[in-house]
């Protein structure tokens, strides 16, 4: 008898704990709403000063020369941000007055013939760059990187591995533990997302999108639109790993629904089609984000975000809950019910918000930069972190970083 | 002796323990065995650590089999509720389509109509006629899906026309080159059918030529088709005296005979020889494409998806018991005109 | 570790288990006796719980194996998942040696590994939801029109001359569908040659538009030249109705030979007094028996169709001011242009088709103060039955015409004149009555797939007198075998 009592007690204890946890969760996901739109309008000039380290060109320009495709792929933000900062009014040539220090290293610009980045060398390259700046300037050692920021737009940020398991195993490069990371990757409670990181949109070619714009009066005649992989047969032959099964589920449940214009084929009218769709699916792929998010916002198609615990770009400035629809991965089979039961007024409101040009501007890295664009939003994000907490400045002789931590391979010279 | 007794007692104790373990195991087994639509299966895998209450709020659902079960059964109920009325509605839909009129019926579910339109880039009138057909289709009660097929080209003409219509459409593009216009048209129709098959779209499929003009009630009528439907089609010839009406002769909605084109004409065109019925004078339930067993046909494996059109034509010809005359009152009203203006 | 051993024991012994159920209370009795037994009891309880959890996981495994197409790695994953889900004290036990590493880091809830692909058991799409979705789309489109369309659109007054003939239904239906799609108020004035007929009335009543159906007291002549003239008179006749009823809006001449793009009806909202749009001319010989398209249009076939299509309409200078007119070049067709209806030659448009002009209806009103001075009064224009070639005849100053549609660069309306021979017959209201004869009985395969052996003459040339419009659509259900 007692055993059963025991068991029951255990049982209820579990239940109770679970309830408590759930409560926590809902509280956590609630975002501070309000002045979001205004934040987008902020002008970072005058609010911060950035010192750009002068690095040998082998850390950036030479890498780019080897493979110009780096300028067009999804992680090109690291290159454009560098170019932008060099000519930006927030740049300072006097490191003494700088609020932030920027080290221009192009860590994702190492592409396979298919154009996928394989960041095997990135840790060594990054380590080498940090070694360089810490020995040539005094500023790194002052805080061990707490007032430095790095742009690491790779899938798993500064974990520097293309496979998620390996990336998690590695964790964020130990030398970057105190620095602020600007990254595309945004998965809450993930080993590769550090607290205080700035999540940015992936790079989408602004000119190309511009040329495909059609009049906003074009009637929206697609209910749900998606183009992309459902199964990544090459890398995930069994299915269920890729997109945590969510994309496969979209296909299996909705391929026979005429309202779901979903396919793996990318038509030439892809951008135009997004502009005549009401909802655009943005399910996770291998990483939780996808360039569709940017495309959906630019093209005024309500993004349906299917990626549990995603951290969205500039989430502190863009009211994602207001412009998008969030569907839990486990609710994918109910997607049709969820979408058709959204009140029409809410849909129209989301569309109106999406039509707001400042929302679109914040998603793009235009050349040359324009006010309120993604570059400025990154700077705004950095400015909002100022002033640095006094505690980040180390006492003389104090050392926190362990330069020899991490896999042996990463410690080899680059 | 004492040791023997002790060991015996120990064995007993073990047995008892095993019984308990087994019981617990079985209990757990059944607790978890409720089939879930949700896959809590592996999706929420979580590691719990000592300070999890602060940092890791989500493991919740996993560790609570009882909750899972509740959830599941609730969902199953929902399922049952959602399926039952749907089926009955479907059945109603089949029986009295006449009850739904085009304009009323806010949430009155209707059958999906799938219109397949092949286009040829050699057709000078393509753009104009696409617009005209679009104007008609835009007026048809939803749901309607328009599949327009086109050979790949740099021209955005067709895309542009289509996207300004506001109709729900699929634009299918192909790369092959054809010299024979009829072969090309058939290829295009096949592509559309493959699309329907691949997506397992369920609805009534009709091949609409760009030279067709429809009375709007036509689309309402074909929604009543269960398997196959056919109707008279009027062919109008420019600058000629004759008007040809082709199609079924019906008693009520039962097809009792046929009117046909002249045999000489059949040898003219390659399509006609294989399929003397006008391509626009029949419609069929799309499930024949992806679920032929349901219609008592051999499985789809036997036919090549290369030529779904051929399969459909064959089915239409063989299944005259399932063939329904449209409009239902004796198929005596012409609702579809086909303009003969160009040579092709 | 202990638990694991216990589990192993359990596994090993379960085979030899004989099903003897021991009384539970003996153990309970013994339990109180010593701290050792209490410890054992606690352990026992813990093991029970573990079995429970194991059982739960096992059932899921079984479920998974049965319902998802599984593979060996799935099971591996299952165990990984299983392991991580045990209470924290156990996570230290080490079977994490398999390939898929799981973050046991504490704050991460992200599971790297295989997830189930959720496929719902209930059928879909739900028809009710499909309708809801369509309502959403419709509403979104309406909202787009509100937002990007004209704020205070004027009524569109469409004028269509017609008469009962073989091609009437085909043509008039096309025009009707265009007008039905116009998102603004529409008044459709249908002028019928030879007086109004029920046939036409029945057809246009399907539109659901506000229609004015008026007769014109003359039969349609057979020569194209005379036809054009008469159609002009019919349009003027309709304009008199506009004048009398003081219809306010924009007048378009929607001919049966026209095909419209919907943008036209937006564009014409811009007109102030009189506007002109470009009309794409689609000349054809209607040749279905060897009479090919004329040389010019055959060339069109090879090139880009649109750029080569003859266009009628306003011509502008660089600052979008009217400088002249693109007229249809008739020269290539002069030798073989159709003179009468049914002539197998190219039917030509007039120099400038009426359809290319858009009028502010106030232009034909009798007394309007702000009417511009360069407009002739309607009564002055059409008086002596003279031919009004185009609305330009209303103007003292032809330069007053406002070019619309990016001045001829954008074609929003086409002209295609197709008719049957004048003596062509068709069943009244297109109701086949008496029913057609059966040429092939249904039961024995309507179409032969073997060598065709059909009666040679199976063409049904319907020879039912034209204009028997009084006949009611009665259908005989004669039984035939």
Task: Tell me about this structure.
The complex is a heterotrimer of chains A (414), B (344) and C (481). Chain A is α/β, with parallel strands linked by helices. Chain A contains 17 helices and eleven strands. A six-stranded parallel sheet of chain A has the order 2-1-3-4-5-6, covered by helices on one side. A five-stranded parallel sheet of chain A has the order 8-7-9-10-11. Chain B is 41% helix and 18% strand. Chain C is elongated and about 130 Å long. Classes of the chains: A alpha/beta (414), B alpha/beta (344), C alpha/beta (481). At the B-C interface, α1, α2, α4, α5 and β7 of B face α1, α3, α4, α5 and α6 of C. Chain A: InterPro entries: Exostosin, Exostosin_GT47. Chain A: Keywords: Glycosyltransferase, Golgi apparatus, Signal, Signal-anchor, Transferase, Transmembrane. Chain A: This is Exostosin GT47 domain-containing protein. Chain A: One of its GO terms (biological process) is plant-type secondary cell wall biogenesis.
Q: Which strand order does the major sheet of chain C show? A: 3-2-1-4-10-6-11
Low-confidence stretches of chain A: 13-36
User: Strand portion of chain A, in percent?
Assistant: 5-15%
Order of helix and strand elements from N to C terminus of chain A = HHEHHEEHHEHEEHEHEHEHEHEHHHHH
User: Shape of chain A, please?
Assistant: globular
| Secondary-structure class of chain A | alpha/beta
Order of helices and strands of chain C: HHHHHEHEHEHEEHEEHHEEEHEEE
Class per helix and strand makeup of chain C = alpha/beta
Sequence of strands across the biggest β-sheet of chain A = 2-1-3-4-5-6
Percent helix of chain A: 25-40%
How many distinct beta strands of chain A? 11
- Largest sheet data of chain C: 7 strands, mixed
Poorly predicted runs of chain C are 1-32, 67-108, 288-307, 444-481
**First-residue to last-residue Cα separation of chain C:** 87 Å
Instruction: State the helix count of chain C.
Output: 12
Q: Label the overall shape of chain C.
A: elongated
Q: Helix count of chain A?
A: 17
């Amino acid at each position: 008898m007692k055993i059963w009592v025991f068991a029951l007690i255990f049982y209820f204890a579990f239940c109770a704990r679970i309830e408590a946890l759930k409560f926590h969760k809902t509280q956590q996901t609630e975002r501070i709403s309000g002045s979001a739109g205004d934040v987008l309008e902020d002008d970072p000039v005058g609010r911060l000063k950035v010192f750009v380290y002068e690095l040998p060109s082998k850390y950036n320009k030479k890498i780019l020369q080897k493979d110009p495709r780096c300028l067009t792929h999804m992680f090109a933000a690291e290159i454009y941000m560098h170019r932008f900062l060099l000519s930006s009014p927030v740049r300072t040539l006097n490191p003494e007055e700088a609020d932030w220090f920027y080290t221009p290293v192009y860590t994702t610009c190492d592409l396979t013939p298919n154009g996928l980045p394989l960041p095997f060398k990135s840790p060594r390259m990054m380590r080498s760059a940090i070694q360089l700046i810490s020995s040539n300037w005094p500023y790194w050692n002052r805080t061990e990187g707490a007032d430095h920021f790095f742009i690491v737009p790779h899938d798993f940020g500064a974990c520097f591995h293309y496979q998620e398991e390996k990336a998690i195993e590695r964790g964020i490069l130990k030398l970057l533990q105190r620095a602020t990371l600007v990254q595309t990757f945004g998965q809450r409670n993930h080993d590769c997302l550090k607290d205080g990181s700035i999540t940015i949109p992936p790079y989408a070619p602004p000119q190309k999108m511009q040329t495909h714009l059609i009049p906003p009066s074009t009637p929206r005649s697609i209910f749900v639109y998606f183009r992309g992989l459902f199964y990544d047969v090459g890398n995930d032959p069994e299915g269920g790993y890729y997109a945590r099964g969510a994309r496969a589920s979209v296909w299996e449940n909705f391929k026979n629904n005429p309202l779901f214009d979903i396919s793996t084929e990318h038509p030439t009218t892809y951008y135009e089609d997004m502009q005549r769709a009401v909802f655009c699916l943005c399910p996770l792929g291998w990483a939780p984000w996808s360039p569709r998010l940017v495309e959906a916002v630019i093209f005024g198609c309500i993004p349906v975000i299917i990626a549990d615990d995603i951290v969205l770009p500039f989430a502190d400035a863009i009211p994602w809950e207001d412009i998008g629809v969030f569907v839990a991965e486990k609710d994918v089979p109910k997607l049709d019910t969820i979408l058709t039961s959204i009140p029409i007024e809410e849909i129209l409101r989301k569309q109106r918000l999406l039509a707001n040009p400042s929302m679109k501007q914040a998603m793009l890295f235009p050349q040359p930069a324009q006010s309120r664009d993604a570059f400025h939003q990154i700077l705004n994000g950095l400015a909002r972190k100022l002033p640095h907490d006094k505690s980040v400045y180390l006492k003389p002789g104090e050392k926190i970083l362990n330069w020899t931590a991490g896999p042996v391979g990463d410690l080899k010279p680059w | 002796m004492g040791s023997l007794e002790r060991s015996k007692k120990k064995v007993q104790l073990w047995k008892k323990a095993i019984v308990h373990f087994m019981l617990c195991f079985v209990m757990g087994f059944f607790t978890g065995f409720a089939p879930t639509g949700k896959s809590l299966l592996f999706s929420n895998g979580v590691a719990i650590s000592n300070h999890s209450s602060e940092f890791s709020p989500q493991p919740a659902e996993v560790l609570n089999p009882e909750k899972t079960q509740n959830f599941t059964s609730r969902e199953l109920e929902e399922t049952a509720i959602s399926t039952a009325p749907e089926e009955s509605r479907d059945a109603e839909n089949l029986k009295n389509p006449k009850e739904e009129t085009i304009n009323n019926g806010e949430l009155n579910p209707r059958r999906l109509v799938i219109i397949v339109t092949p286009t040829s880039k050699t057709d000078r009138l393509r753009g104009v006629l696409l617009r005209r057909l679009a104007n008609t289709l835009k007026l048809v009660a939803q749901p309607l899906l328009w599949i327009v097929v086109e050979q790949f080209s740099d021209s955005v003409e067709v895309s542009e026309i289509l996207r300004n219509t506001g109709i729900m459409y699929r634009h299918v593009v192909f790369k092959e080159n054809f010299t024979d216009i009829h072969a090309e048209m058939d290829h295009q129709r096949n592509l559309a059918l493959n699309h329907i098959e691949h997506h397992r779209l369920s609805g009534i499929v009709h091949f609409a030529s760009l030279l067709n003009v429809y009375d709007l009630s036509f689309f309402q009528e074909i929604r009543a088709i269960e398997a196959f439907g056919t109707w008279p089609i009027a062919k109008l010839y420019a600058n000629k005296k004759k008007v040809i009406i082709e199609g079924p002769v019906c008693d009520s909605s039962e097809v009792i005979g046929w009117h046909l084109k002249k045999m000489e004409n059949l040898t003219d065109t390659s399509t006609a020889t294989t399929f003397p019925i006008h391509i626009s004078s029949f419609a069929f339930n799309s499930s024949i494409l992806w679920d032929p067993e349901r219609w008592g046909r051999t499985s789809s494996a036997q036919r090549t998806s290369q030529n779904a059109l051929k399969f459909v034509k064959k089915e239409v010809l063989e299944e005259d018991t399932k063939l329904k005359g449209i409009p239902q009152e004796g198929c005596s009203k012409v609702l579809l005109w086909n303009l003969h203006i160009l040579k092709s | 570790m202990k638990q694991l051993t216990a589990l192993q024991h359990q596994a090993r012994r379960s085979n030899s288990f004989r099903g003897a159920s021991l009384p539970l209370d003996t153990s309970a009795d013994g339990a109180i006796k010593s701290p050792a037994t209490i410890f054992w009891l606690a352990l026992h309880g813990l093991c029970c719980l573990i079995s429970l959890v194991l059982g739960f996981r096992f059932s899921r495994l079984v479920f998974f194996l049965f319902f998802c197409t599984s593979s060996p790695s799935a099971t591996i994953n299952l165990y990984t998942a299983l392991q991580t889900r045990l209470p924290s004290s156990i996570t230290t036990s080490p079977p994490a040696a398999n390939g898929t590493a799981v973050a046991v880091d504490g704050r991460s809830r992200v599971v790297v590994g295989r997830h189930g692909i959720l496929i719902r058991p209930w059928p879909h799409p739900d028809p009710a939801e499909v309708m809801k979705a369509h309502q959403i789309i419709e509403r979104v489109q309406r909202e787009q029109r509100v937002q990007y369309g004209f704020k205070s659109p004027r009524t569109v007054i469409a004028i269509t001359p017609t008469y009962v003939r073989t091609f009437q239904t085909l043509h008039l239906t096309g025009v009707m569908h265009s007008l039905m799609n116009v998102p603004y108020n529409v008044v459709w004035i249908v002028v019928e040659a030879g007086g109004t007929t029920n046939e036409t009335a029945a057809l246009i009543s399907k539109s659901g538009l506000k229609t004015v159906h008026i007769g014109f007291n003359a039969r349609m002549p057979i020569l194209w030249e005379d036809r054009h003239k008469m159609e002009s008179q019919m349009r003027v006749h309709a304009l008199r109705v506009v004048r009398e009823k003081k219809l306010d809006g924009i007048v378009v001449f929607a001919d049966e030979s026209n095909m419209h793009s919907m943008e036209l009806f937006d564009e014409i909202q811009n007109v102030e007094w009189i506007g002109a749009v470009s009309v794409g001319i689609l000349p054809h010989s209607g040749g279905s028996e060897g009479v090919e398209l004329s040389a010019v249009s055959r060339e069109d076939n090879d090139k880009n169709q649109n750029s080569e299509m003859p266009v009628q309409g306003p011509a502008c200078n660089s600052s979008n001011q009217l400088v002249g007119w693109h007229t249809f070049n008739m020269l290539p067709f002069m030798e073989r242009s159709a003179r009468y209806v049914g002539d197998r030659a190219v039917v030509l448009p007039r120099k400038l088709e009426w359809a290319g002009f858009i009028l502010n209806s106030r232009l034909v009103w009798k007394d309007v103060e702000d009417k511009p001075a360069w407009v002739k009064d309607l009564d002055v224009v059409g008086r002596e039955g003279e031919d009004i070639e185009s609305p330009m005849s209303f103007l003292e100053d032809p330069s007053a015409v406002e070019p619309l549609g990016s001045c001829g660069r954008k074609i929003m309306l086409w002209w295609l004149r197709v008719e049957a021979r004048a003596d062509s017959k068709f069943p009244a209201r297109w109701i086949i009555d008496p029913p057609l004869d059966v040429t092939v009985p249904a039961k024995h395969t309507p179409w032969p797939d073997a060598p065709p052996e059909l009666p040679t003459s199976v063409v049904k040339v319907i020879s039912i007198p034209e204009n028997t419009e009084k006949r009611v659509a009665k259908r005989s259900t004669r039984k035939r075998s």
